Amino acid sequence: QLHLVESGGGSVQAGGSLRLSCAASPYFYARYCMGWFRQAPGKEREGVAHIDGANVATYADSVKGRFTISKDEAKDTLYLQMNSLRPEDTAKYYCTTYRSYYCPAGPTRDNNWGQGTQVTVSS
C-alpha cells in the first residue's frame, strides 16, 4: 500500500511563497501521473497541478505562472512550489498518485491520497 505524507503548509501573507512536499513510501511511482489538489471550506476539491510519466506538467488556470510542480525520484518526493500566493489560495492541499502514465481527466477510485497540509494566506 502506497503511503503519501504532505508537509510544508503554513500561514503566509499575500505575495509570499511556500513549498509543499509529498513523500511517498515504500517507493515512488515515478512513471505514473501525480498531482496536487486543494479544497477550501465549503468548496469542491479542485485540481491544482499534475505531472505525468513524461514529466509534462499541467496547471489550473488560477495558478499558472505562480505554481510549479516537480518530483525528485531519488527522494521519492513530489513538490509544489507556490509563489505570489493570494488569499484565494487558502485551502488544504493534497497530493495524489494515479495508476496511469498520462494524467486522466480526474482522479479515480484507484488514486492514493495523502492526509493533506493546510495553507493559509492572509491579505
Provide a descriptive summary of the structure in words.
The relative contact order is 0.32. The protein is an all-beta fold and 123 residues long. The chain starts with a strand and ends with a strand. The protein has no helices and eleven strands. A hairpin with a 5-residue loop joins strand 5 and strand 6 (57-59). The mean pLDDT is 95. The chain has strands at residues 3-7, 10-13, 18-25, 34-39, 46-51, 57-59, 67-72, 77-82, 91-97, 112-113, 117-122. The strands form two sheets. Strands 2, 4, 5, 6, 9, 10 and 11 form a seven-stranded mixed beta sheet that branches. A four-stranded antiparallel beta sheet has the order 1-3-8-7, with no helix packed on it.
Report strand %.
over 45%
How helical, in percent, are the residues? under 10%
Backbone CA Rg: 13 Å
Distance between the termini: 40 Å
How are helices and strands ordered from N to C?
A: EEEEEEEEEEE
Low-pLDDT windows of residues: none
Report the principal-axis shape. globular
Distinct helical segment count:
0
Derived from helix and strand composition plus strand pairing, the structural class reads mainly beta
Number of strands: 11
For the report, how would you describe the main beta sheet? 7 strands, mixed
